[in-house]
Amino acid sequence: MRVIEVIIDGFKSYAVRTVISGWDESFNSITGLNGSGKSNILDAICFVLGITNMTTVRAQNLQDLIYKRGQAGVTKASVTIVFDNRDKKKSPIGFEEYATISVTRQIVLGGTSKYLINGHRAQQQTVQNLFQSVQLNINNPNFLIMQGRITKVLNMKPVEILAMIEEAAGTRMFEDRRDKALKTMAKKEMKLQEITELLRDEIEPKLEKLRTEKRAFLDFQQTQNDLERLTRVVVAHDYVRCQEKLEQSAADLEGKKQRQKDLEESAARLKSEISHLEEDVKRVRAQRDKELKKGGKAQALEDAVKKHSNELVRLATVMDLKKSSMAEEKEKKTAVEKNVSELEATLQEKTQAFEEIKARFDAAKDDLEKQSQEAESKEELLQTLQTGVASKDGQESGYQGQLQDARNRATAAVTEQEQAKMKIAHLEKRIKEEEPRARKAKEQNADLLKDLEGLRSQAQKLEKELGRLGFEPGQEEQLYQKQSSLQQQIRGLRQEADGLKRKVANIDFNYADPTPNFDRSKVKGLVAQLFTLDKENTQAGTALEICAGGRLYNVVVDTEVTGTQLLQGGKLRKRVTIIPLNKIAAFKASAQTIATAQRIAPGKVDLALSLVGYDHEVSAAMEYVFGNTLICADADTAKKVTFDPNVRMRSITLEGDAYDPSGTLSGGSSPNSSGVLVTLQKLNDITRQLKEAEASLHQLQLTIASEKSKLDHARKIKQELDLKSHEIKLAEEQISGNSSSSIIQEVENMKETIAQLKTDTAAAKKRHAEATSDVKRIEKDMKDFDNNKDAKLVELQKSLDKLRANLTKNAASVKVLQKEVQGAQLDSEQVSGDLSAAREQLQEVEVAIKAQQRDIEDLVKQQSTLQETLDGVQAELDDERAKLHGFDDELHALEDATRSKNARIAEESLEMQKLGHQVERFHKEQQSAVQTVAHMEKEHDWIADEKENFGRTGTPYDFKGQNIGECKSTLRNLTDRFQGMKKKINPKVMNMIESVEKKEVSLKHMMKTVIRDKRKIEETIISLDDYKKKALQETWEKVNGDFGQIFNELLPGSFAKLDPPEGKTISEGLEVKVSLGKVWKQSLTELSGGQR
To answer: Which locations, inside or outside the cell, does it occupy (predicted)?
Structure first.
């Protein structure tokens, strides 16, 4: 595209229309004299191309471009350039079909610029796009190379040189387009964000709210329709029922009136009959009294019967007392027998222990005596061997004496064995003779012995069963006695607690369970019931009452929910203040403040909270009541701590005077509730004791209930055991009384004697062996002594010393055993004494039982005699009464008839009352039905049109096909629901939601459009970047080749080129490099001015 014609009119020095045409294809310069307008031609071309920098066209503003600034009558400047557009490859985008393109720019004095393309008005941006599409951008910095720009160009940085290449390539337009696209995309993104925020923050919440209101409105409409339908059904049903009452036959009323009349006549008749019966009763009684007056025999017989009956009752009472006393004695006997049995077992154990200790003591004592004799013997032997003289007269000295003694012991042992053998032989002979008789006797007593063993086996089983059950005589009586004691204690505590409760009636807090299965542990009670006051703090009771004030009677609960339940459903009898533990804002004085107060008056100041005891779970309530008040011993202390600047807390003296930091003083007299806390503490203690006693009683009753069956079973087994013991005793007496048993016993004794003799023979044989051993040892010692006297004496001395040491040690052990024997003997004697006393007590009890048994037998005889007398008198009385029986029967018959008629009168009177009420109710129901029907017809005008369908099958008023009771219940629920929904629904919601939904759809459509445009812009930017890179590469290659050829032509032998900086690409910049000959210059400053 090239210039073929320029038309200038009113632009700068061209006052009139000037047409310059016939431009050469190779045109590249303008020549002419000074002032001929050469520069204005260039300025005109720049003007049309859309230059914005006025200094380039040597003007300050657009007005300077009009001929003589419009003062010569020319008020408009216009320049038109006609371009040849036949080369379609280089045509502007969108103008390929035009052979020529004319671009006109006009300015008017005081106005704005106007562009025309091919005679049509166009926007400046359209004109710029046209030129930029063919690499013509007048506003590029280097579009015009003015005078003095060569050096600046050569000194440009690589990025600035790259910009010149971009201008030549026309990619600057792409950069502008790209920047505009990015700005447009940013605007689109902002618009998208605005739409999203509008949807999220305004449209969607509003739409959700409207949809909720719409659902509520539709539900309301459905409820309204159901309400109307059920209302018609229920009203129709009530209308039909009222009509039925109105149509009820009057015959019922007449029947009731007739029945009333019949009942009145019947009542009059019955009263007349009763009066006749009463006259007959008087007559019969008069006859009976007349018969009774003939003699007082019946009365005398009745008195005698009464007297004898009373005497029998007295004897029965005495008999019961005697039997009770005897039962107690028998129980006492059982206890004593048990005690005797236990003492016998204990005595047996003690005796056995004594015998065991005694045997050990005797054995130790014998050993000690043997050791003593051995020591004495060795000492005698040693002295004899050393001196040759015995220490005791009449004894043989030395080994000879010991040898003789050992031989004597051996001889005695042999003799004892021989005698034992003879005795054994004799006894065995007798046993052989007597054993057949004993065997025969055993066969005769075999059944008795077998029965005895069976009884003993059964008794042992019963004893084991009793031991397993843990039966103790008197255990049940002890349990019942303890139960009676606890019941008496509980009655006393309740009476005492009731008395204290009357003194402090304000603490009586009662309530009903507000909900089913309500957990009463959530209600802790009154504040006054939740803390304790120790005895040492009792003097502070008045002060604590003043401190708590009305809060003393506040009710403490776990949460505010429980408090609300109590207030709404607890049926409280009086107004109360409730303290919820989870909500109460308790304030407790700091430890520092309390410490300061206690330093001011040591020992006279305490925090009220520290004087009371309480559970941890109610600590918040206690801190709320007592946590911010000091209790002081006297008024002076209270003044000091209250008004101290580091304390400033409310204080109360023990007398009840209250000091407030604000300067208020109250008190001077005891409060009306004085002593309440002390009484409350007593009540709390008694209540605690009562709970403990009731818990103990409950546990005891459970124990009695659980032990009853076991005790009954044990008592039954004990009775069986006593019976078996008695049977065993009888069997033993029967066996011992038999003559053949003595033969059996004699044989058994002989066998025992033989066993003892055999034991003695074994012992004698052992002693014989020991004596024989001693003989051999002594003979050996004598031989050794003869061979080596001195060594044997030393050995004897050592043996003697060792024996003496053992003798001393064993003597101490024997003394210890002796003390144990004495202690065991004392224990045995003590138990023996107790056993004797118990046996004496048992004899006394048996004597008392026998005496009471005789008394009971005497009483039985007296009862028998008296009963016979009573029977005789009673028979006479019955005969006498039989005479009067006729009168009595007649009187009874008359009285029964009178009662029957009176009862009938009462029944008929009651029936008459009921009939009267029914008639009255009938009139009222009829009147009410008339009013109800009239009211229904007036209130519901549709009744007149629909009443023919009431109750008809297949219509909405089919009463048989519907449960009217359920309909009425549903109607009530729907009415309540309708009234509640009527206040909450939005009647305009249907119109409102439609407009908001349309707005939502519009915004979402707009958002989709913006997203689509954004995506297209991003795609365009990518394609423009690719196109820019391609165009820049082509332009660089073309410019680089031309640049080198031009320089070579101007300076042969030289070459110039544009290369990217080292390590970079052309998109990052270009540098001018010159080669002069074969030398590449690193800097253009080395060139001359002309070369540059």
So the answer is: Nucleus
